Amino acid sequence: MTGCQFAKLIAQRKDRIVTATFAGLAQEEDVSRVFDAGAQAQLPAIALFTGIRTEHALAEQLHILARGPRWTLTEEHPEGLTTDDVMVGMEWRIRDGLASSPMGLAPFATMPVTRRAPYVCIAAWPGGHDNPNWTRFERGIVHFLDTDLTALKLTKAKYKSLTNVSKETTEELLHEVGDDARHYRRVAFRLQASVREALRPAFAR
Amino acid sequence: MAKARTRRAKQRRVTLDEFDRDLPRVLLAARKAGGVVVVDADGNTRFHLSIPHAALPESRR
Questions:
Q1: Parallel, antiparallel, or unpaired for β A18-22 and B45-50?
Q2: For residue A25, what pLDDT is reported?
Q3: Rounded distance, CA A127 to CA A119, Å?
């Protein structure tokens, strides 16, 4: 339950997404292969890690990814948020000059309510700036906002209305537990402080 | 009561080498029911890839 109305619409379509399931810890190049497959298919890509049950196991997976040439992990410090939790930012290089900012989902209490899922997932839009309705994009980076939504055949008015409902629903879900969507603009995972040491070598200097 | 059909969809296997060499063909196979299992040169499963072809029921969105 992310609050995102576009995700709901995409879920109703056939051939909507590239998914890959990893039963154990995944090799970095295999997760990159999945995102490359998404780029080739012009579809969002999701890697599901069904074998990751704890935040420490996730930290180990993130460490593996960070050793690869296409992944950059950072520790984020969102403005206005006071916490000991580790806020993990993530980028995956699509090609020179363009990176994707993946979204993390996980079944952990530290994760924001809109990013909780039965399994740990890393989801990304691996294409370009392919959403003509989203014009305030960052030149060198793509987010889910950049997803090609052509197949949904949305009018400008419908797009605007879905955007507004998405924002309102997400804010409402987070506000109920005293949280704020602004904290997660660049954060893929919010994890407990005890994994910070395990993650430290993975963070870009 | 009629017995429910439980036959599982066939899963195609592709090697990492095939994945890297001919991604469009792998994507075609991933669109079919059951998806594809990607294996290394020794036949060990690395991951399962699929492009779901059916819409999710309302309760799972």
A1: antiparallel
A2: 97
A3: 24
* Residue with the larger pLDDT of the pair A107 and A138: A107
ipTM given for this complex: 0.87
Q: Does A33 sit within 8 Å of B38, measured CB to CB?
A: yes
* B55, closest residue in chain A (CA to CA): A12
- Using a CB-CB cut-off of 8 Å, the residues of chain A touching B27 are 18, 37, 40-41
Give per-residue pLDDT as tens, A65-92: 999 999 999 999 999 899 999 999 999 9
Cα of B42 to nearest chain A Cα, Å: 16
Is A26 in Cβ contact with B51 (below 8 Å)? no
Q: Where along chain A do its domains lie? A: 14-149+181-197
Q: Which residues of A touch B30 (CB under 8 A)?
A: 18, 37
- Of all residues in chain A, the percent with pLDDT exceeding 90 is 63
pTM of the full structure: 0.88
**In A42-183, beta strands by DSSP E:** 45-49, 71-76, 86-95, 98-100, 103-105, 120-124, 141-142
List CB contacts (< 8 A) between B41 and chain A: none
Give the residue from A15, A44, A152, A8 showing the smallest Cα distance to B53. Answer: A15
